[in-house]
Amino acid sequence: MALPQTTVVTLGDELYAALRERRTVAPLSERVPGIDIDDAYNISLHFLHRRTANGEALIGKKIGVTSKAVQDMLGVHQPDFGFLTDRMQVKNGARVSIKGSGLIQPRAEGEIAFVLKKDLKGPNVSEDQVLDATDYVCPCFEIVDSRITDWKIRIQDTVADNASCGIFVLGEARADPRKLDLAAVSMQIRKNRGKAAEGLGSAVQGHPATAVAWLASTLSRYGIPFLKGEIILSGSLAPLLPAVAGDQFDMSLTGIGGASISFTE
């Protein structure tokens, strides 16, 4: 049975307040009997509504928890999904204030972003349809964050919390995905000039386009299409890396390019 709309609104407002006040809340999955993924998605929509009502613009979508390494780290064994707004995006190479950007308990992940040249609607979207709809791919650092205390999340918690999205940065490099074997793309991440993580495109459900196709098909169940010009984040290629003030992250994707971000207090 679906949660009452009053409960959905209350929980969405709670997560929005936690975002604005830089604090965490207890896991919804422990407090709300019977909450399921559809309930969580409805909560995330209200959370998004609060953000857009405050002037943020929707610019894309994201899939997360796609690789086994991340699933094992978080104890969440299926992908999550959420939305990107313009205020989440920061420039490549930016020095980001953790407090000023509203981050609470950030972690960095490297991934491949898809930028669309035409609309893409489900259901049953294929990898070939994803590649056909893609203008280019580029490097991306997503700085995930959770409004749930101590990252103690189940799938319902992270979906309700907009797939634990914080901010993201895109590298300037652009590549044609039809000219690359995205599954074989190799990623290297350096943290404070030392090797920190590595991974392959195949870590993301076997192929990043497979993850994007899953997301397009999943969102179609809720009547949400992918739109021309949107940014689609396909998921982390390696385990998440905690970020604190003073940290600098640099990443490179073979055949695509790189991105960087650093943090201040």
What is the element layout, followed by pairings?
Blueprint: H1 5-21, H2 28-31, H3 37-53, E1 58-64, H4 68-74, E2 80-85, E3 89-90, E4 95-97, E5 107-116, H5 127-133, E6 134-144, H6 155-160, E7 165-170, E8 186-191, E9 194-200, H7 208-220, E10 231-236, E11 241-242, E12 248-253, E13 257-264
Parallel strand pairs: 1-10, 3-7, 4-13
Antiparallel strand pairs: 1-2, 5-6, 5-10, 5-11, 6-7, 8-9, 8-12, 12-13
Helix pairs in contact: 1-3, 5-7
Nutshell version of this structure?
The chain is of the alpha+beta class.
Quickly count the helices: 7
Radius of gyration: 17 Å
CATH third-tier fold name: Fumarylacetoacetate hydrolase, domain 2
Structural class based on helices, strands and sheet pairing: alpha+beta
CATH homologous superfamily - what is it? Answer: Fumarylacetoacetase-like, C-terminal domain
Shape: globular
Number of domains: 1
Number of strands: 13
